[in-house]
């Protein structure tokens, strides 16, 4: 199943179900204050009761502001509340922002360079 939604002119989000217990959220563009909540809304939509893994593929994100970083943590917390884990596959700019803010210990996979999306 694939669902594509433009969160704004700067951001496109595509949701796939590579397996019944896995959701893949592919994000392209920029995550900033103007669209971070829409990003979270789409990611939250991908969460369901039987989900074990939420993959955030951020390899095509060219900019991530502090609002986006905050929403990554919020998504992780929502997933944990529902019994799922989150794995982040960052782009260079996203990885640098995560490392600079000390969030690598809070976001699984965030420090990995050019990590493949494992399903």
Structure, explained:
- The protein has a five-stranded mixed beta sheet.
- The chain has one domain: 2-Layer Sandwich (Transcription Regulator spoIIAA), CATH 3.30.750.
- Helices cover 30% and strands 37% of the residues.
- The protein has 119 residues and is α/β, with parallel strands linked by helices.
- Helix 1 packs parallel to helix 2.
Q: How would you name the CATH homologous superfamily? A: STAS domain
Architecture, CATH level 2?
Answer: 2-Layer Sandwich
Beta-strand residue fraction? 35-45%
Strands in their spatial order, largest beta sheet:
1-2-3-4-5
The biggest sheet, with number of strands, parallel, antiparallel or mixed sense and barrel status, is:
5 strands, mixed
CATH class term: Alpha Beta
Instruction: Give the overall average pLDDT.
Output: 88
Structural class category? alpha/beta
Spell out the helices and strands N to C.
Answer: EEEHEHEH
Question: Helix coverage percent of residues?
Answer: 25-40%
Radius of gyration equals: 13 Å
According to DSSP, the number of beta strands is: 5
From the 3D structure, determine the CATH topology: Transcription Regulator spoIIAA
Per DSSP, the total helix count is: 3
What best-fitting shape do the alpha-carbon axes yield? globular
Short structural description:
The protein has about 120 residues and is α/β, with parallel strands linked by helices.
Keywords:
Transcription Regulator spoIIAA; 119 residues; alpha/beta; single chain
